[in-house]
Structure formats: C-alpha cells, structure tokens
UniProtKB/TrEMBL annotation:
<keyword id="KW-0812">Transmembrane</keyword>
<dbReference type="InterPro" id="IPR001851">
    <property type="entry name" value="ABC_transp_permease"/>
</dbReference>
<feature type="transmembrane region" description="Helical">
    <location>
        <begin position="140"/>
        <end position="165"/>
    </location>
</feature>
<keyword id="KW-0029">Amino-acid transport</keyword>
<protein>
    <submittedName>
        <fullName>Branched-chain amino acid ABC transporter permease</fullName>
    </submittedName>
</protein>
<comment type="similarity">
    <text>Belongs to the binding-protein-dependent transport system permease family. LivHM subfamily.</text>
</comment>
<keyword id="KW-0813">Transport</keyword>
<feature type="transmembrane region" description="Helical">
    <location>
        <begin position="60"/>
        <end position="82"/>
    </location>
</feature>
<dbReference type="Pfam" id="PF02653">
    <property type="entry name" value="BPD_transp_2"/>
</dbReference>
<keyword id="KW-1133">Transmembrane helix</keyword>
<feature type="transmembrane region" description="Helical">
    <location>
        <begin position="94"/>
        <end position="120"/>
    </location>
</feature>
<dbReference type="InterPro" id="IPR052157">
    <property type="entry name" value="BCAA_transport_permease"/>
</dbReference>
<feature type="transmembrane region" description="Helical">
    <location>
        <begin position="6"/>
        <end position="28"/>
    </location>
</feature>
<keyword id="KW-0472">Membrane</keyword>
<feature type="transmembrane region" description="Helical">
    <location>
        <begin position="186"/>
        <end position="209"/>
    </location>
</feature>
<keyword id="KW-1003">Cell membrane</keyword>
<feature type="transmembrane region" description="Helical">
    <location>
        <begin position="263"/>
        <end position="283"/>
    </location>
</feature>
Length: 290
C-alpha cells in the first residue's frame, strides 16, 4: 500500500509539470487553432538560459524570474516574426513552420550549450521539512509552484481587463476588433504567456530528467495527451488532464507495462481520447447545422 501511495503522489508531482506544458499548448491552440509542436523545445531552450545564468553566478530564483521574462519575450517575438505572417497560410504550411521551429530551437541549444547532459539544480533542498517518504521536496515544490502559476493565470484571465481582452481575442477575434480590442497584440501576449508557462515547466522537470536538448521530447507527448484528455480548448481541462496523465503514467508504467514502455501509455491515451471523446473531458463539442 505504501508503494502504491508513493507512485500515486509521485504521479501527481509529475503530472503538475505536464499540466504546465499542456496549459501552454492550450493557450496557443485557443489563439491559433494549431498545436505548437515546438513548445517543448522552446521550454528546453529557456531552461538552458536559466542554467547559463546560474552557472554565471546568479541566484536560482533570480535566474528563474529572469528566464520567465525572457521566455515571455521569446514567445511574443516568435508570434510577431513567424506566426503572424502565416495567419492566412494553409494548415499544412503552419504545421511545417512549427516543426521547423522545433528543429531550430533544438539545434540552436546544441550549438550554443552543447549536447552533453548537464545536471540542473533544484531550488528545494533535499533536507527540507516538507519532504517525506512519499514525496521528495522537489516534487512537493513542483506541485506548489505549478498550482500557484495556475491560480495566478486564472485570476489574470478572470478578473483583469487585459486578461478578459486576451480571452475575447482568442475566442472571437472579429467581435473583439469591433469593440476596439487590438487582436494582434492580444495574440502576441498570449504567445508570450505560453512561452513563460512552458519555461516554468522546463525548469521544474530539468532536475529530474537532467538537462539536454532532447529532454522535453517525451514531456511534450505526455503534455499533449493531457491537453487532449482534459480538452484542447479548455485551460482547466488541460491542467486536469496533465495530472491524470502523470498518475496513469506512474501507475501503469510501474504495475502493468514497465518503465521502458511508459511513453506508450501517453500514445495509447491520445489515440483512445481521439476515438472515444475527441473534445476531451471538459472540452466543448461543437455541432454545426447545415
């Protein structure tokens, strides 16, 4: 029973990271109706920026905050320079652009920082009082940080004028323009926030999987599965789906298929959701009358 409880709680900790990346995917999908396949590589590149600043002597939380700001700027720049000119392009062309961005960030990280696996520090010391036999201090910290980010985003989108304008621009660009909302600027801010949230996920997962240019490949698949399970158009659903995938990955990987096949669990979940309930648990089912 203790082993099962440990796997369950560890799954929640892992799921919190998947939830943050899934939330970034949903934020992009809401504004463009495309899945940003480069989201994981952008988060990985941001994590390398944090690592470089820490190596240069900057305190962890200062590097963390500065990386979030730089990642916001990077996401906004990608939208402005790459995605906005593709606004009227065919879907296949946009997908190719996303794959191209994935390769660019992957190669750029390897060129600048090397392909050698590097340890990434955790800000939560191993001897911290909030650790236990079920959850390490880093796992507890990852859950708390992720939930805090989710709460801040909820308050921002629910109660601030800028957040409401961003939601309106993502859901109904035409009506938003008619009431004076600068839709292009709102979408750029949305990409910036997605970049910042993804960077937080990257910095939380790096102490666990170590830092290298390919570290987010599997995480992106799990996050994508979480976004589909919860609802690719629903931020709350993406968070819920991320936690579900984290728990299922741990339990099924430990007691059913083994750790070598854990990634298969995410792929099976993606296929199953697309077959049974394409809109996800909390997603909207859109019915068109012809």
């Amino acid at each position: 029973m203790d082993a099962f409880l440990h796997q369950l709680l560890s799954g929640l900790a892992t799921g919190s990271i998947y939830a943050s990346v899934a939330l970034a995917l949903v934020m992009i999908y809401q504004s463009t109706h495309h899945v940003n396949f480069a989201q994981g590589e952008m988060a990985m590149f941001s994590t390398y920026l944090a690592w470089a600043m820490i190596q240069a002597g900057l305190p962890y939380w200062a590097a963390f905050a500065l990386t979030v700001v730089l990642s916001f700027a990077l996401g906004a720049l990608v939208e402005l320079a790459v995605i906005r000119p593709m606004r009227s392009a065919p879907v296949l062309s946009v997908v190719v652009v996303f794959v191209g961005l994935l390769m660019i960030f992957h190669s750029l990280a390897g060129w600048l920082f090397g392909f050698t696996i590097q340890p990434f520090p955790s800000p939560f010391p191993e001897s911290a009082w909030y650790g236990s036999s079920y959850l390490s201090p880093h796992e507890v910290g990852a859950i708390v940080v992720t939930l805090a980010v989710m709460a801040l985003l909820f308050l921002f989108f629910r109660f601030t004028p800028l957040g409401l304008a961003m939601r309106a621009a993502a859901q109904n660009p035409l009506s938003s323009r008619l009431v004076g909302v600068n839709v292009g600027r709102m979408l750029m801010l949305g990409w910036g926030l997605a970049g910042a949230v993804g960077a937080i996920g990257g910095m939380l997962v790096a102490p666990v999987v170590f830092l290298d240019p390919g570290m987010m490949s599997g995480v992106l698949i799990y996050a994508f599965a979480g976004a589909l399970i919860g609802g690719i158009d629903n931020p709350a659903g993406a968070v819920l789906g991320g936690f579900i995938v984290g728990v299922l990955e741990n339990l099924i990987g430990t007691y059913v298929v083994g750790t070598e096949l854990k990634l298969t669990v995410a792929l099976v979940l993606i296929v199953a959701v697309l077959i049974v309930r394409p809109s996800g648990l909390l997603g909207k089912t859109i019915v068109l009358k012809v």
